[in-house]
Amino acid sequence: MLDVRKLRLLCDLERLGTIAAVAQARSYTPSAVSQQLATLEREAGVALLERSGRRVAFTAAGQVLARHAATVLSALEETDAALAAVRSGPAGPLRIGAFPTAVRTLLPAALVTLGCDHPALELMVTELDPAQVPAALRERRLDVGLLNDYDVAPGDVDPDLDSVPLLEETVFLAVPVAVRCGTLAEARDQPWIMASEGTLCHDVTLRVCAAEGYRPRVRHRADDFVTVLALVGAGQGVSLVPELAASPVEGVRLLPLGLRRRTRIAYRKGAAGHPAVAALVAALS
Known about the structure:
By secondary structure, the protein is α/β, with parallel strands linked by helices. It has helices at residues 4-16, 19-26, 30-44, 60-87, 100-105, 107-117, 133-138, 200-211, 225-233, 275-284; strands spanning 49-52, 55-58, 92-98, 121-127, 144-150, 161-176, 191-194, 217-221, 239-242, 252-268. The protein has three domains: 4-84, Arc Repressor Mutant, subunit A, CATH 1.10.10; 92-166 and 264-284, D-Maltodextrin-Binding Protein, domain 2; 169-258, D-Maltodextrin-Binding Protein, domain 2 (3-Layer(aba) Sandwich), CATH 3.40.190.10. It has a six-stranded mixed sheet with strand order 4-3-5-10-6-9, sandwiched between helices. It has a two-stranded antiparallel ribbon with strand order 1-2. Belongs to the LysR transcriptional regulatory family.
């Protein structure tokens, strides 16, 4: 019988590409990952990987097993959800990952509802950039997470995850009231307040500015939109702000753009029927 934990490592390797990356994601040592995969090969009775120094490549058998392993893991997730539904209603730990604006605006009412309707749930919220959510779900550090994408930066289809739409928002250009600027094109010569590199917000800003033929001149970096709007109100630059975070701030004009942000509720494939996951989806929706 093949070990499920080792199958997860094989799927991780297919997704991440290197044993070092798998080790980092799982908080193992590379040698521990290699040993587990070698044991899996012995259990399978066939070579799964071809090794050349520190590099590995999947054999044909390894590709077949990785493909079927993903199906097995999804089926196990679905089985766990079905058993949880039979055992009881929503109960036990529910680990939720969400971006800061959602934690401030969307989650509080949902958490109150869940606490009243399902007191046996143990709710735990972690602030995470949407770019970090898929890995946290796969690695079982989260049960549910909120993902974003934009019409200029559509989200990748992740074969390990399922999701349902939550909301769609207009994105605004936030400018100081003293600045004569009404469009993205006119913001070319303005200093910008941008999110940290590697975040989706940072990538989207670069894309929309590139579409207007320029690269934004960064003056400040901030990931929380309350801070962003405070800096805009202080005349420190312009920025993109989604509708969920676009509260009125003195000294700030909010100009709607032809740009949309979409938010989805994501969970591991097969987990939609889990009572705790279903309860959160219902409370948020």
